[in-house]
Amino acid sequence: MPYRAPVEDYKFLFDHVVGLDQIIKTDRFAEATPDVTGAILTEAARMCEEVLHPLQRNGDLHPAKLENGVVRTSPGFDQGYKAIAEGGWISISANPDHGGMGLPMTVTTAVNEMMSAACLSLQLNPLMTQGQIEALEHHASDAIKEVYLPKLVSGEWSGTMNLTEAQAGSDVGALRSKAEPKGDGTYAVTGQKVYISWGDNDFTENVCHLVLARLPDGVPGTKGISLFLVPKYIPDDTGKPGVANSLSVVSLEHKLGLHGSPTAVMQYDGATGWLVGKEHDGMRAMFTMMNNARLGVGGQGIGAAEGAYQHALAYALDRKQGRSPVKDGTGTIIDHADVRRMLTTMKADIFAARSIALACAVAIDMQTATGDAEWAARAAFLTPIAKAFGTETGMNVSDMGIQVHGGMGYIEETGAAQYNRDVRVTAIYEGTNGIQSMDLVARKLMDDGDAANALLDEIEEQAEAARTDLPDLAEPVWQASETLREALEWMLGQKDLNQRFAGSVPFLKAFARVLGAHFHLSAAITEKGIGPRSKLARFYVKRLLPEHTGLLAHATAGADDLYAISAEELDT
């Protein structure tokens, strides 16, 4: 099935829903005019449709392999990566001082989503590099920036993130990797890291690893962790890859999906590394990369959802089964009510998730351009929602895509199942969705709910303004926002964080549901209630928004009943 990048949807969201215009009004991003962003979207779409999407099945059927210590990537991935690098798609938001375009993260988010829909396993490579670029821009020394950033920005070199160890997954502070000063400004890094996405490849000149490790005087826990840049090949005096560093790929994981993306076990044996940021402050530097990646991973989920939706829609428009229940129907299964329900749900949730992700990107860009603390707080608050809801949407939509195919969805040759297998990990890596929700109700509410209430104020203000012209949409959105605000107040009243954590996942989902309704309402306002997006908004508000009621009942139930059932009773 061919993939068609939803360029017009991005443009509509930029112009009428998430407010790209306010970014363009800043001095930092004044060049990101609609003409420029439109041209970028169009060109990126062509690359995704014509170059990347044909590689989707290759990566699944012909996985990356480790042969005699060398990672061999899937057929065609080298040319796909070349198209990404030469097109400048890695460096859209990178600093122009190092060869980047310096354009808004909002544009990067849209392009990354397109690439994810086209070929998720390959897109993961530039996503990791983009995160490393941002981390180095913010925390590395000028000497490191001078050598590494131009190569990463151009795509000649690629980047990875090394946090996880066998005994230290979500509990990063339990890591055992160590770094010893060598007396010449470098460090000897030793340890083993697991689940390293794109730990190596055979199409870039160098692979640059950001590795968390502990110095000899580092205290236990996350406060004693430092961050090091450890390249596969140590750059020589001219900045070109020189001698091989003391690191290796031990093995590649056998995974449910993302077969084209080599997930490596990395071994460091006194490998030469350079400190990034300050000693014992590695988590702060790494979180710069992780927050970038969390928005990106949310986009991966949305991209997979878009690919799965288009795949299912094409099948539904072609598959004939049973008598059509509607007059003058197509004669295919899209005439059937349940198939229509699934496809409309898929489309409505993709719109909601995409809007949330782009709104988060807009907040990041406004923070970057203005330094305003309120924009920073909004970006921080929306990041876990964008990551979790985007990836949940990817899983749910790809699952419905299999169902639309019926028995053929369970047959690998149709390709429907691949979207579901590939996207499943996005709810796990870069911080599980459970951790995202815990972050939302704990750290992100340390401002006494100011960022959350500011969003709710905007939702209610818009709904109030639309009550006269679109009462069927505005009133439910306003009421849902008020119910959500009550749940927020309950969360803020719980001083025992475990009471919040017990309902954090449904709280995040409910917040996403209400935000999704807000953005659907924005689309309907633009169309004055008449048009395809208005019809989709009515479907969302009538059928999907009501889920928030049950979610918030769960969110505010506390933890007592969870612990009333003992571990022993769960095992009987």
How would you portray this structure in words?
The chain is an alpha+beta fold and about 575 residues long. Among the domains are: about 20-140, Orthogonal Bundle (Butyryl-Coa Dehydrogenase, subunit A, domain 1), CATH 1.10.540; about 155-280, Butyryl-CoA Dehydrogenase, subunit A, domain 2, CATH 2.40.110.20; about 435-565, Four Helix Bundle (Hemerythrin (Met), subunit A) (Up-down Bundle). It is built from 20 helices and 11 strands. It has helices spanning about 5-15, 20-25, 35-50, 55-60, 75-85, 105-140, 140-155, 280-320, 335-370, 375-405, 415-425, 435-440, 450-465, 470-495, 495-500, 505-525, 530-545, 545-555, 560-565, 565-570; strands at about 65, 70, 155-160, 180, 185-195, 205-215, 225-230, 235, 240-245, 245-250, 265-275. The strands form 3 sheets. Strands 3, 4, 5, 6, 7, 10 and 11 form a 7-stranded mixed β-sheet that branches. Strands 1-2 form a two-stranded antiparallel ribbon. A hairpin with a 5-residue loop joins β8 and β9. The termini are far apart. About 55% of the residues are buried. The model has no long low-confidence stretch (mean pLDDT about 95).
Strand and helix map with partners:
Layout: H1 7-16, H2 20-24, H3 34-52, H4 56-61, E1 65-67, E2 70-72, H5 77-86, H6 105-139, H7 142-154, E3 157-162, E4 178-181, E5 187-197, E6 206-214, E7 225-231, E8 233-235, E9 241-244, E10 247-252, E11 263-276, H8 282-318, H9 337-370, H10 373-405, H11 416-423, H12 433-441, H13 450-466, H14 471-493, H15 497-501, H16 504-526, H17 532-544, H18 547-555, H19 560-564, H20 567-570
Helix pairs in contact: 1-3, 3-6, 6-7, 6-8, 6-9, 8-9, 8-10, 8-11, 9-10, 9-16, 9-17, 10-11, 10-12, 10-16, 12-16, 13-14, 13-16, 14-16, 14-17, 14-18, 16-17, 16-18
